[in-house]
Amino acid sequence: MQTYAEKKAYYDSLLTLYGRNSVMEALTSTFVTPVTLHLSRSNRQEGIILELIAIANTRNIPIKLHEKEALSRISKNAKQDQGVALDVQNSSYKSAEHYLQNLPENATIIALDGIQNPQNLGMIIRSVAASGIDAILLPSKESAKISPLVIKASAGTLFKTTILTCNTLASTLPAFTKNNFAIYGLAADAKESLFSLQKPKRSLFILGNEHEGISKEVASHCTHALAIPMQNGVESLNVAVTAALIAFCTMQESF
Question: Which of 2, 9, 11, 51 has the most CB within a 10 Å radius?
Answer without folding.
Answer: 9
